[in-house]
Amino acid sequence: MVRSNHNVAAEERGIAMGRVVVLIVGMVLLVLGAQGGIRLLADHDNAGVLRWLPGGFAAQLGCFAAMTLAGAALAAVGGANVRRSNSGR
Predict the structure, then answer these.
(1) Alpha helix (H) residue ranges in 43-55
(2) Taking the C-alpha atoms of 15, 21, 22 and 27 in order, what is their torsion angle to the nearest 10 degrees?
(3) 8 A C-beta contact, residue 36 and residue 67
(4) Which string of b and e fits 37-68 if b means at least 16 CB within 10 Å?
(5) Which of 23, 31, 42, 52 could form a disulfide with 78 if both were Cys (CB 3.0 to 4.6 A apart)?
(6) DSSP 3-state helix, strand, coil percentages of the chain (rounded to 5)?
(7) Are 16 and 85 in contact (CB under 8 A)?
(8) Cβ-proximal residues to 30 (8 Å cutoff; 6+ apart), any chain
(9) Distance, CA of 61 to CA of 79 (rounded, Å)
(10) Is this prediction's pTM over 0.85?
């Protein structure tokens, strides 16, 4: 099957949009995790979005740390992919 230039351009835009979505999700996780962890360290009774999580302070802080690390990794991967896809323009 022969693909037209129009279909190729639309497919490339879809891939670029996916990379931007990964970047945005990573940044949101990074901000929520870091802000929640700092808030929890300042006030042990205020767990924010993880107040429902059983296990107390240690479990909540561990989840905020994991959220921060996952967000940083996703933002780094998404940012590198977005920069690489825009470098040819």
Answers:
(1) none
(2) 150
(3) yes
(4) beebeeeeeebeebeeeeeeeeebbebbeebb
(5) 23
(6) 80, 0, 20
(7) yes
(8) 68, 71, 72, 74, 75
(9) 26
(10) no
CB 33 within 8 A of CB 49: no
- In angstroms, the CA 31 to CA 6 distance is 38
Residue 80: its pLDDT value, please?
A: 76
Q: What is the pLDDT of residue 5?
A: 55
The predicted pLDDT at position 78 comes to 84
Q: Which two tokens stand for residue 41?
A: 């360290």
